[in-house]
Amino acid sequence: MFLPALNDYALVFGELPAGVSPEAARCELLGPDPACKLAIVSGSGPDAVVEFHNSNGRHGGAPQTGLATIALATRSVPWLKDLFADGFVTYPSQAGPRQAGLPATSPAAGGRIAVEMPTVAVELVPLAMERVA
Hints:
Layout: E1 2-4, E2 8-13, H1 22-30, E3 37-42, E4 49-54, E5 57-58, H2 64-74, H3 78-83, E6 88-91, E7 98-101, E8 105-107, E9 113-115
């Protein structure tokens, strides 16, 4: 499944064929553009796990654009909506399996779809302090 919504994403359902790396699959499905992304969904129901990949390899978490892409896809693909019926995606991390919520989607003006992304808070601090003698 190809979704060019927030980033160009290919969603692959099931294991990749033997000998095909995620990077090879990403390039084959989307071309060599390093901005293109791949999500591999393995398992089904509550056992489904999603691995997110970019040109640097497997993402260490669940990127917001990947979660939003899946949320958008569930709006028009009934079996995909059933796969993520609880509204969460399980993904691998260095600390073991983790879960991330799919953002809510709703109809918006002009036939568009609104995606409710989480608020981001950033605190900037100096990297080094000047020593005063």
